[in-house]
Amino acid sequence: MSAHYLDHPLQPGDLAPNIVLDAISREGKVALDEFRGRSPLLIGLFRGLLCPFCRRHVAAMAQLIPALREKGVDSLAVVNTPVERARHYFRYHPISGLLAASDPERASHRAFGLPILEFTQNETRWPYKVGMDVVMTMRVDRPGELPEPMDPAAAGDLLSEKDGYEITEADQQMRIPGHMQLVGHFLLDREGVVRWSFTEVEGEGRNVCRALNPEELMSAASQVAH
Protein backbone atom coordinates (compact mmCIF):
# COMPACT_ATOMS: atom_id res chain seq x y z
CA MET A 1 0.00 0.00 0.00
CA SER A 2 1.35 3.42 -0.94
CA ALA A 3 2.36 5.71 1.89
CA HIS A 4 1.43 8.71 -0.25
CA TYR A 5 -1.94 10.24 -0.89
CA LEU A 6 -3.52 9.63 -4.23
CA ASP A 7 -4.34 12.92 -5.95
CA HIS A 8 -8.09 12.18 -5.72
CA PRO A 9 -10.36 9.69 -3.96
CA LEU A 10 -10.80 6.28 -5.53
CA GLN A 11 -13.48 6.43 -8.22
CA PRO A 12 -16.01 3.87 -9.47
CA GLY A 13 -14.04 1.29 -11.42
CA ASP A 14 -10.90 1.61 -9.25
CA LEU A 15 -9.66 -1.46 -7.39
CA ALA A 16 -9.46 -0.84 -3.64
CA PRO A 17 -6.15 -1.81 -2.02
CA ASN A 18 -5.93 -4.37 0.73
CA ILE A 19 -5.77 -2.79 4.18
CA VAL A 20 -5.03 -4.64 7.42
CA LEU A 21 -6.14 -2.94 10.63
CA ASP A 22 -6.69 -3.77 14.31
CA ALA A 23 -10.28 -4.87 14.92
CA ILE A 24 -12.21 -2.95 17.56
CA SER A 25 -15.34 -5.06 17.83
CA ARG A 26 -13.45 -8.35 17.99
CA GLU A 27 -9.91 -9.58 18.62
CA GLY A 28 -7.28 -9.73 15.90
CA LYS A 29 -7.10 -7.96 12.57
CA VAL A 30 -9.52 -6.95 9.84
CA ALA A 31 -8.34 -7.10 6.22
CA LEU A 32 -10.22 -5.97 3.14
CA ASP A 33 -9.00 -9.12 1.42
CA GLU A 34 -11.28 -11.07 3.81
CA PHE A 35 -14.24 -9.82 1.78
CA ARG A 36 -12.74 -10.10 -1.68
CA GLY A 37 -14.43 -12.85 -3.64
CA ARG A 38 -16.94 -13.32 -0.82
CA SER A 39 -19.23 -10.30 -0.55
CA PRO A 40 -19.62 -6.64 -1.48
CA LEU A 41 -18.50 -4.25 1.27
CA LEU A 42 -19.46 -0.78 2.44
CA ILE A 43 -16.40 0.75 4.11
CA GLY A 44 -16.85 3.97 6.06
CA LEU A 45 -13.62 5.89 6.71
CA PHE A 46 -14.16 8.29 9.59
CA ARG A 47 -12.22 10.75 11.68
CA GLY A 48 -11.61 9.72 15.26
CA LEU A 49 -14.42 9.24 17.73
CA LEU A 50 -13.36 12.65 19.00
CA CYS A 51 -15.40 14.05 16.07
CA PRO A 52 -19.07 14.45 17.08
CA PHE A 53 -20.23 14.19 13.47
CA CYS A 54 -18.32 10.94 12.96
CA ARG A 55 -19.81 9.41 16.10
CA ARG A 56 -23.24 10.10 14.63
CA HIS A 57 -22.29 8.92 11.16
CA VAL A 58 -20.90 5.63 12.51
CA ALA A 59 -24.19 5.06 14.34
CA ALA A 60 -26.17 5.99 11.20
CA MET A 61 -24.11 3.57 9.12
CA ALA A 62 -24.81 0.83 11.67
CA GLN A 63 -28.55 1.40 11.31
CA LEU A 64 -28.24 0.46 7.64
CA ILE A 65 -26.50 -2.87 8.37
CA PRO A 66 -29.67 -5.03 8.41
CA ALA A 67 -30.88 -3.64 5.06
CA LEU A 68 -27.42 -4.03 3.54
CA ARG A 69 -27.14 -7.59 4.83
CA GLU A 70 -30.42 -8.44 3.11
CA LYS A 71 -28.64 -7.52 -0.13
CA GLY A 72 -25.56 -9.54 0.87
CA VAL A 73 -23.43 -6.45 1.56
CA ASP A 74 -21.06 -6.41 4.56
CA SER A 75 -20.05 -3.24 6.40
CA LEU A 76 -16.85 -1.98 8.01
CA ALA A 77 -16.40 1.26 9.96
CA VAL A 78 -12.83 2.59 10.31
CA VAL A 79 -11.99 5.27 12.88
CA ASN A 80 -8.81 7.29 13.49
CA THR A 81 -8.84 6.31 17.16
CA PRO A 82 -6.30 4.07 18.94
CA VAL A 83 -7.78 0.61 19.36
CA GLU A 84 -7.97 0.52 23.17
CA ARG A 85 -9.63 3.93 23.32
CA ALA A 86 -12.09 2.89 20.64
CA ARG A 87 -12.89 -0.36 22.45
CA HIS A 88 -13.53 1.60 25.63
CA TYR A 89 -15.94 3.91 23.78
CA PHE A 90 -17.90 1.09 22.16
CA ARG A 91 -18.04 -0.78 25.46
CA TYR A 92 -20.15 2.08 26.83
CA HIS A 93 -21.86 2.88 23.50
CA PRO A 94 -22.33 -0.59 21.99
CA ILE A 95 -23.53 -0.85 18.39
CA SER A 96 -24.90 -4.29 17.69
CA GLY A 97 -23.55 -6.01 14.61
CA LEU A 98 -21.03 -3.30 13.73
CA LEU A 99 -17.62 -4.47 12.51
CA ALA A 100 -15.21 -1.67 13.34
CA ALA A 101 -11.46 -1.20 12.97
CA SER A 102 -8.88 1.22 14.32
CA ASP A 103 -6.59 3.22 12.04
CA PRO A 104 -4.74 5.87 14.07
CA GLU A 105 -2.13 6.14 11.28
CA ARG A 106 -4.83 7.02 8.69
CA ALA A 107 -3.38 4.43 6.30
CA SER A 108 -6.81 3.59 4.92
CA HIS A 109 -7.61 7.24 4.25
CA ARG A 110 -4.37 7.65 2.30
CA ALA A 111 -4.99 4.44 0.37
CA PHE A 112 -8.48 5.60 -0.64
CA GLY A 113 -7.22 9.06 -1.60
CA LEU A 114 -8.79 11.12 1.19
CA PRO A 115 -6.52 14.10 1.96
CA ILE A 116 -5.90 16.05 5.12
CA LEU A 117 -7.41 19.52 4.77
CA GLU A 118 -5.41 22.52 6.03
CA PHE A 119 -7.27 25.47 7.53
CA THR A 120 -5.86 28.83 6.41
CA GLN A 121 -6.77 32.45 7.02
CA ASN A 122 -8.24 33.10 3.58
CA GLU A 123 -6.54 30.79 1.05
CA THR A 124 -8.70 28.03 -0.46
CA ARG A 125 -7.42 25.30 -2.76
CA TRP A 126 -9.98 22.57 -2.23
CA PRO A 127 -9.56 19.82 -1.04
CA TYR A 128 -6.10 20.59 0.39
CA LYS A 129 -6.60 24.06 1.85
CA VAL A 130 -9.65 26.00 2.95
CA GLY A 131 -9.87 29.54 4.27
CA MET A 132 -11.76 30.17 7.47
CA ASP A 133 -13.77 32.75 5.52
CA VAL A 134 -15.10 29.83 3.45
CA VAL A 135 -15.59 27.55 6.47
CA MET A 136 -17.81 30.16 8.11
CA THR A 137 -20.14 30.08 5.09
CA MET A 138 -20.56 26.26 5.26
CA ARG A 139 -23.71 24.98 6.92
CA VAL A 140 -24.43 21.71 8.69
CA ASP A 141 -28.08 20.89 9.23
CA ARG A 142 -29.15 18.37 11.87
CA PRO A 143 -32.83 18.99 12.63
CA GLY A 144 -33.66 18.04 16.18
CA GLU A 145 -30.06 18.38 17.33
CA LEU A 146 -29.07 21.84 16.09
CA PRO A 147 -31.35 24.86 16.49
CA GLU A 148 -30.59 25.89 12.89
CA PRO A 149 -28.07 25.15 10.12
CA MET A 150 -24.67 26.16 11.53
CA ASP A 151 -21.05 26.35 10.39
CA PRO A 152 -19.14 23.11 11.11
CA ALA A 153 -17.07 24.54 13.98
CA ALA A 154 -20.04 25.95 15.88
CA ALA A 155 -22.12 22.85 15.17
CA GLY A 156 -19.33 20.56 16.35
CA ASP A 157 -18.87 22.51 19.59
CA LEU A 158 -22.59 22.37 20.33
CA LEU A 159 -22.86 18.63 19.61
CA SER A 160 -19.75 17.86 21.69
CA GLU A 161 -21.17 19.81 24.62
CA LYS A 162 -24.45 17.94 24.23
CA ASP A 163 -22.70 14.55 24.16
CA GLY A 164 -20.46 15.15 27.16
CA TYR A 165 -17.73 13.19 25.34
CA GLU A 166 -14.66 12.88 27.56
CA ILE A 167 -11.53 13.77 25.59
CA THR A 168 -8.63 11.55 26.66
CA GLU A 169 -4.91 11.76 25.94
CA ALA A 170 -5.38 9.11 23.25
CA ASP A 171 -7.94 11.38 21.57
CA GLN A 172 -5.63 14.39 21.83
CA GLN A 173 -2.85 12.48 20.11
CA MET A 174 -5.08 12.10 17.06
CA ARG A 175 -5.57 15.84 16.63
CA ILE A 176 -3.74 17.56 13.77
CA PRO A 177 -3.66 21.24 14.79
CA GLY A 178 -4.95 23.46 12.01
CA HIS A 179 -5.95 20.47 9.87
CA MET A 180 -8.81 18.01 9.42
CA GLN A 181 -8.85 14.57 7.85
CA LEU A 182 -11.48 14.37 5.11
CA VAL A 183 -13.61 11.24 5.21
CA GLY A 184 -16.06 9.20 3.16
CA HIS A 185 -17.82 5.96 2.33
CA PHE A 186 -16.95 3.53 -0.47
CA LEU A 187 -19.08 0.66 -1.71
CA LEU A 188 -16.98 -2.19 -3.10
CA ASP A 189 -18.22 -5.11 -5.16
CA ARG A 190 -17.23 -8.73 -4.50
CA GLU A 191 -13.94 -8.25 -6.31
CA GLY A 192 -13.03 -5.15 -4.29
CA VAL A 193 -13.79 -2.67 -7.08
CA VAL A 194 -15.31 0.68 -6.07
CA ARG A 195 -18.87 0.98 -7.40
CA TRP A 196 -20.15 4.00 -5.45
CA SER A 197 -18.77 6.60 -3.06
CA PHE A 198 -19.74 9.59 -0.96
CA THR A 199 -16.86 11.70 0.36
CA GLU A 200 -16.21 15.13 1.83
CA VAL A 201 -13.87 15.82 -1.09
CA GLU A 202 -16.65 16.17 -3.65
CA GLY A 203 -18.83 19.25 -3.80
CA GLU A 204 -16.13 21.82 -2.97
CA GLY A 205 -16.86 21.43 0.72
CA ARG A 206 -20.65 21.06 0.59
CA ASN A 207 -20.36 17.49 1.92
CA VAL A 208 -18.23 18.37 4.94
CA CYS A 209 -19.74 16.84 8.11
CA ARG A 210 -22.78 15.66 6.14
CA ALA A 211 -24.20 12.16 6.35
CA LEU A 212 -24.59 10.04 3.24
CA ASN A 213 -27.97 9.68 1.54
CA PRO A 214 -29.33 6.23 2.52
CA GLU A 215 -31.51 5.99 -0.60
CA GLU A 216 -28.53 6.58 -2.90
CA LEU A 217 -26.50 4.00 -1.00
CA MET A 218 -29.24 1.35 -1.04
CA SER A 219 -29.79 1.90 -4.76
CA ALA A 220 -26.08 1.34 -5.37
CA ALA A 221 -26.12 -1.69 -3.06
CA SER A 222 -28.92 -3.22 -5.13
CA GLN A 223 -26.68 -2.93 -8.19
CA VAL A 224 -23.61 -4.58 -6.63
CA ALA A 225 -25.74 -7.33 -5.13
CA HIS A 226 -26.59 -8.70 -8.59
From TrEMBL:
It comes from the Bacteria. Residues 10-226 form the Thioredoxin domain. SUPFAM superfamilies: Thioredoxin-like. GO terms for molecular function: antioxidant activity; oxidoreductase activity. This is Peroxiredoxin. It comes from Phyllobacterium zundukense.
